[in-house]
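Methods — Computational structure assignment.
A single polypeptide chain was analysed. Its primary sequence is given first, followed by the predicted tertiary structure written as structure tokens.
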Amino acid sequence: MDDPAVAGLAAVLSPAGQALLASLPPYDDEGALALGQRLRAAGHDPVLVAGALTQSRLRARARAKFGPFADDMLFTAAGLEQATRLEVAARHARRFAAAGVRRVADLGCGVGGDALALAGLGVDVLAVDRDEPTAAVAAANLRRFPGSEVRCEDVAATDLTGVDGAWLDPARRDDAGRRVLDPRRASPPLSFAVELAHRLPVGVKTAPGIDHDLVPGAVGSPVGGPVGGPVASAPWECQWTSVDGDVVEAALWSPALARPGVRRSAVVVRGGVAAVVDDVHDPFAAGAPPVGPVGGYLYEPDGAVVRAGLVGAVVAALDGRLVDPSIAYVTADRHLELPSATGYAVDEVLPFGLKPLRARLRERGVGRLVVKKRGTAVEPEELRRRLGRLEGPHEAVVVLTRVAGRQSALLCRALPRPAP
């Protein structure tokens, strides 16, 4: 084979390759070169050695997404990067299972992360990917589930006979390898999913930056099905998910899988524990939250909450207010631990200026500084450089933002997060 990565993967998929991979010690980047030399000296094929060491390295990286399950899986580098984290895939799978779906087509299955979560709940899976090495990896990962089938073909041409639900993970890169943020330009495009939703319950993974107006069924949405079709006019649910502070996806759920009355929601996963915020419980979902002066506490809503446009739910939970009508910082007069926001105690609010800020930090003996920002062009790294050397035993958080339209610096202290 011309591609060394493909050749190495094919070698690892053989019985001899599986045996060699199983015999390797835990991956150690510093010792990988010497290990490879010893394996080749012992008579193992160099292509097989390279493939096995690549899989060992990918498994080590994959533990962040799949935990200990990664040690029994195979990967491609691109497939691992794009794979859904196991805890997020499990939430997808539970939604299908709760709706009574018994056989799901995982269209654009990649290495099989979502397919594995579905199969683990006893749901039969038809996993489809048009890339041959990726489909081979998915088949290997699903080998212990007899109700699973893997096909290497174009997902748009797949025969879905016998399937009663579909999960789509469209390709979100163009021919030049650039990221595609508009789901209408993904492969297959969002219109394909909307058409499919007239026949089946459908979920679609998309980029967290999706425009709210592109969610099917949203007012003015340019994405729909046949004129007058029930799925075209019924709203879908869009759910943004973050894991330990990183917004990892937005998922679109057709009316058959959407929760009643919910159009926008956010899942905040921290330490393996999930909290859900949705527009049903946001009293400001249809309007603007109040704005007012900075109180004793400042709260930074989780990125998934911000993406979902549900900062008002944080405002309501805190009986608080925004510091500026266009900035997603919430202030309140009390401390309340929320899984959906990070809290800070506010010590001082200053008009932004480099010299007075430097002087106050030195007066307070601040040697360790965290800089956060929203609504300002100042870059945290540049500010830290311009502040010069800071010395002292204390730590502080400086929040650069607008307060009532004025550029301001809030001197804060981090508050403990609630235990998972």
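Note: The chain has three domains: 4-73, 80-258, 297-414.
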